Amino acid sequence: MTPAPAREGIRPIRALPFKMHEHAKEAVDVGSALLGWMEDPDTDRGIHFADNAGGWSFRSYADLAGSVAEVAGRLEQAGLGRDGIVCIALPSGPEFVAAFFGTLIAGGTPSPVAPPLVFRSADEYLSQLTRQLQAASPCLVVSDADLLPVMVEAAQAAGLDCPCLRLPLAGERCELPARAPAGLALLQFTAGSSGSPRGVRISWSNLETHLAALHQWVRWRQDDSVASWLPLYHDMGLIGMFLCSVVHRAHLWLMRPEHFLRSPASWLACLGRFGATMTASPSFGYAYAAKKVTPRSWRAWTSPAGARPPSAPSGWTLRLWTGSRAWLRPTASGARRFCPATAWPRPPWA
Length: 350
What we know:
Number of strands: 13
Number of helices: 12
CATH topology of the domain at 61-206: Rossmann fold
Structural class: alpha/beta
Distance between the termini: 32 Å
Shape: globular
Largest sheet: 7 strands, mixed
């Protein structure tokens, strides 16, 4: 990968280290940091997916790599050609992971779609979705059973003749298709909740340089792990939380936005009880947690096993989080518990 050209006053950022592997040589002829996790995927690290009952299901990176291969083959069978756009309307779960990376492996470009949760009415969502599909002009649309009828209607309203697929994971063992990579790594759209959706074409170099910059900025360590409730159609959730975690094969506790809204203490539990060391949120997320999390629920959810329950945070302490990223030390207390990423250098207790 060629680094982005340096501008005056800005140091060039070196790309993340990567190794080429035999399987990837057959699948994608590019030395990609974004896909390198599939060369020898970890069996003991992976993503913890939140469920609607308040529990978690773990999928190792090895399991997820198998699902990626399965979906890549099915996308190819459905007609995905090189450089084809695949719009992905899926919640934050194993199916999204498989569809996103399966599209890349099969030579396409993924384009995540916002769910109806952020819109006031079904008609408003259908209108926005139609405009986004017209702008993206996908060759395939991937959804789940709940959203599939809406996706079909929106595709028809957009004048598109493209298949709308539901891709449940069957656990089939598949070989990765031998495809050259698409010219674009990502087609990223704004949510469209405050206007027409706008798309940005993001190259492999753009995306991998961005990931490298984040890695350098937060001084990522081998034992870091991540907790996130941010939506995967948004760049902070998709790139800053999800892709950074996968690229570095870190443990990721991944919630959906609606899980966070129901129980922000569950998010804090990831940072305390489960030991996640990084998270991110827009400022309203921290304000919401400060408002909704009581001292009792704070102690119950965030105490690591066998540890003395920590002091509940004050509203002032949570306001320290209003940067784009924060660290938490489960055994600390008071204001030292939280440190926004804008604090530099990284504090010794983080």
